Amino acid sequence: MNGPDIVVHPPGLDGSRRVTLDDEPLGVASHLDDVREILRLADLDVGDLEGGDRIDWQGGGPGEWPGLEEHPNLK
User: Fold this and answer.
1) What pTM, to 2 d.p., does this model score?
2) Contact 13/71 with Cβ under 8 angstroms?
3) Tens digits of per-residue pLDDT, 6-61?
4) Which pLDDT does position 8 carry in this prediction?
5) CA 6 to CA 68: how far, in whole Å?
6) Torsion 13-54-1-20 (CA) sign
7) How much is the pLDDT for 71?
8) Which residue, among 16, 14, 22, 12, has the nearest Cα to 55 in the 3D structure?
9) DSSP state of 53
10) Residue 11 burial (CB < 10 Å; 0-12/13-18/19+)?
11) What integer pLDDT is reported at residue 52 of this predicted model?
């Protein structure tokens, strides 16, 4: 494996983030617990969501869930 196979994409305008596995959509998350549940439903045991090396957190880490008023593209 060359790198992380799970990607949490940058936040959209509503703050939600798409979650994909090898470019296949798994779901849309609004917070870290959603990511955990999406991965559980996909039978993926990732372990540490925040410090593991299997997830590529794009556009901010696991603590970044901006709402519409905080979105960087709207400032």
Assistant:
1) 0.82
2) yes
3) 999 999 988 899 999 998 999 999 999 999 999 999 999 888 888 778 899 999 99
4) 96
5) 25
6) negative
7) 52
8) 22
9) S
10) buried
11) 75
Rounded to whole angstroms, the Cα distance separating 65 from 5 reads 21
| Residues 55-71, mean pLDDT to the nearest whole number | 81
pLDDT value at residue 72:
57
**How many whole angstroms separate alpha carbon 69 and alpha carbon 51?**
28
Write the CA distances from 6 to 58, 65, 71, integer angstroms.
Answer: 11, 18, 23
What tokens were used for 63?
A: 């603590």
Q: Is 73 exposed, middle or buried (0-12, 13-18, 19+ CB in 10 A)?
A: exposed
Strand locations in the chain, DSSP E? Answer: 6-8, 17-21, 24-29, 55-57
Nearest to 49 by CA among 66, 60, 61: 61
Q: Read off the amino acid at residue 61.
A: G
